[in-house]
tRNA (guanine-N(1)-)-methyltransferase (Hydrogenophilus thermoluteolus), 237 residues
Amino acid sequence: MRCDIVTLFPEMFAALTEYGVTGRAAKRGRYTLVFHNPRDHTPLPHRQVDDRPYGGGPGMVMRPEPLTAAIRAAKTAQHTELGFTGPVIYLSPQGKRFTQADAHRLAQYPAFTLLCGRYEGIDQRVIDLEVDEELSLGDFVLSGGELAAMVVLDATIRLLPGVLGDAESARRDSFQAGLLDHPHYTRPETFEGLRVPSVLLSGNHTAIQKWRQAQAMERTARCRPDLLDDRKDAFNP
């Protein structure tokens, strides 16, 4: 999988490429990140990429010329390498809420582009001309799109074949069946007076599976009842 990232701060993505599961996947060539810095595409002196908003107001807005040029460079590079041009995704508060289903969808693409905004946002004409979809992590505002892009990438990369040591790990993640994950336990058997549930020590795999399913349902009902509403909607169109 190839992901082109339009960002002013490509060095931030070392958190993905250098550490943990995603770092190992990068070293094994399971995915490639290609960066396009809008400062390399600006027609203005001093590598300027922002300007005051029309109509007044606080802060600065990212100009359309460098962003559009960087996005088009990403598209051209994807087509040259793969013969395929993936969607352009803008990380923004007004976007659709990112879900596990979106991660699965993105993991199927040979390539896609993530656009990371900064300042007060980006010129709307960039969205109108170049963006295929907008994604959001939730109802809050970050200083820029880089952290959101890294979350999207982390969730997507771990679904790629061969990234996790055991493919079953991904299949048992939270949200895979529309539920939260069940509780997990490891050694020691007793810790500060709390014991591992006896069913997990029984060796009865059928009973263990039933217990885990019941725990997942109970945890979802307690912590995220809205997910159960979504399941009802799925079965009652």
